């Protein structure tokens, strides 16, 4: 398994197992444990979580099925979780909102640790930019968690470059990663400064929804039809499937992208692992870009 190096003491597997759909897929007990072990057998050591996944259930499903049953696995994996999204009803609220106050971050972190069955997480991400956040307070909360040993590294998710810069300016610890939507269906973060910012910071990216929500496989919208045609042609040349080529399209980018799988089926996750061995040419990469955007570069 190829890895994405964060610093001299920390790296993540370039394919990360996303646990967002664990509850919907009925992943619990031995089923979830078997899933985690099969991922690790493939070299996938990074597991992506968030408190809100499964309506506040997925972290506990993982903790009960994996870490409480086999605590020896903890030192062999990297756990990523997030903070800052509040679902309706959690605090008596009528709507979903983002909150990055010190109180909310601390409360969510304690709950995540208890649910996951661990006393620390390797990487904590601010899940979404909070327009009401006091960056000094948010930074203090995150730095305190690192100081207390409850979090090893801090990152962000869905942050634009100016938002990364703003939060970083208040922090003692470095923001080490930005988790963004990146796929053949969603290319805008290659051109809006996100990858430029990552290069400037010597900071890798994590891609969520790397298969674009799956619409490429059967969608009849013009973008999906164009992409499917081009991806099938390229895939045939490599003797593989279009999902492997979609992952390979991300992995070839020099910014260093780790892809978060969205499936709980390990046979489909293998497609992402296989993509690590495919290096698309410039021409192939641009063919896919052109099919996605519907026009060629100038």
Low-confidence stretches: none
The count of DSSP E runs of length 2 or more, i.e. the number of strands, is 12
Record the strand order, biggest sheet.
3-4-5-8-9-10-11-12
Give the terminus-to-terminus CA distance.
37 Å
SSE order in H/E notation?
A: EEEHEHEEEHEHEHEHEHHHEHH
Shape: globular
CATH topology group: TIM Barrel
Can you tell me the CATH class?
Alpha Beta
Proportion of residues in helical segments: 25-40%
Any guess at the CATH architecture?
A: Alpha-Beta Barrel
Largest beta-sheet details? 8 strands, parallel, barrel
Describe this structure in words.
The chain is α/β, with parallel strands linked by helices and 298 residues long. The protein has one domain (3-293): Alpha-Beta Barrel (TIM Barrel). 40% of the residues lie in helices and 18% in strands. It has eleven helices and twelve strands. The chain has an eight-stranded parallel beta barrel with strand order 3-4-5-8-9-10-11-12, surrounded by four helices. The radius of gyration is 19 Å and the shape is globular. The model has no long low-confidence stretch (mean pLDDT 97).
């Amino acid at each position: 398994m190829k890895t994405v190096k964060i610093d001299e003491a920390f790296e993540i597997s370039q394919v990360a197992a996303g646990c967002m759909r664990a509850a919907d897929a009925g992943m619990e007990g031995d089923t979830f444990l078997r899933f985690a072990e099969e991922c690790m057998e493939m070299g996938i050591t990074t597991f992506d979580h968030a408190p809100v996944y499964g309506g506040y259930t997925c972290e506990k499903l993982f903790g009960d099925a994996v870490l409480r049953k086999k605590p020896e696995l903890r030192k062999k994996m990297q756990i990523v979780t997030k903070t800052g999204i509040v679902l309706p009803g959690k605090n008596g609220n009528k709507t979903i909102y983002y909150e990055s106050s010190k109180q909310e971050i601390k409360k969510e972190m304690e709950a995540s640790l208890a649910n996951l069955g661990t006393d620390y997480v390797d990487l904590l991400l601010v899940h979404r930019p909070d327009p009401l956040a006091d960056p000094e307070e948010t930074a203090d909360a995150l730095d305190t968690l690192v100081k207390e040993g409850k979090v090893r590294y801090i990152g962000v998710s869905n942050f634009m470059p100016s938002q990364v810069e703003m939060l970083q300016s208040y922090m003692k610890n470095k923001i080490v990663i930005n988790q963004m939507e990146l796929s053949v269906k969603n290319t805008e973060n290659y051109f809006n400064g996100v990858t430029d910012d990552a290069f400037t910071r010597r900071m890798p990216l994590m891609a969520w929804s790397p298969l674009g929500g799956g619409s490429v496989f059967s969608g009849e919208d013009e973008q999906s039809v164009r992409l499917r045609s081009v991806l099938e042609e390229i895939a045939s040349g490599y003797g593989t499937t279009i999902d492997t080529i979609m992952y390979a399209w991300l992995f070839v980018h020099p910014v260093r992208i780790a892809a978060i799988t969205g499936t709980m089926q390990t046979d489909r996750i293998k497609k992402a692992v296989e993509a690590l061995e495919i290096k698309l040419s410039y021409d192939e990469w641009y063919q896919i870009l052109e099919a996605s955007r519907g026009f060629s570069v100038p």
